[in-house]
Amino acid sequence: MTRIDFYLLSSDQPDTRLAYACRLAQKAWHKGHRVYLHCPDEAITRQVDDLLWSFRRDAFVPHVVLGEGPEEPVACGWADQPGSYNDLLINLSDQPPAFFSRFQRMAEIVIEHDPVRLPARDRFRLYRERGYPLNSHPIRTAG
User: Fold this and answer.
1) First to last CA, the chain
2) Which GO terms describe its biological process (predicted)?
3) N or C, fewer C-beta in 10 Å, the chain?
4) The model's pTM
5) Does an H or E element contain 108, and which?
6) Which domains are delineated in the chain?
7) Is 125 helix (H, G, I), strand (E, B) or coil?
8) What is the pLDDT of residues 30-81, one digit of tens each?
9) Partners of 7 in beta bridges
């Protein structure tokens, strides 16, 4: 059964949420995991793609926009299917992806901004009602 972790950031800035997603993807990749960042649309996917190149000057995360090149350890996309990825899913969408249960772990990154926080509460309730193991991690952020 998929383990679901909610990362509760002490920020209301959407950019902080995306930067944290990149940091989480980098950490998981360093531990040998394959990561899929599920975005709500193409625009956010392109933003995450750019951030994965630049969120840290001393970091490199081998990644690809799903379907635009050979597979890499990290992929980002907005499609209905995550290709062959099934290790760690980082959900940046307002909805639980239909395919989330095929992943070993899923991360939900939440900021103190109602358009993000309120749908995340609904997803938390849905996952709890379905019996998924849930963990919450309060994270103090600078922005």
Assistant:
1) 34
2) DNA replication; positive regulation of DNA-templated DNA replication initiation
3) N
4) 0.95
5) strand 105-110
6) 3-139 (3.40.50.10110)
7) helix
8) 999 999 999 999 999 999 999 998 877 777 789 999 999 899 999 999 987 8
9) 109, 137
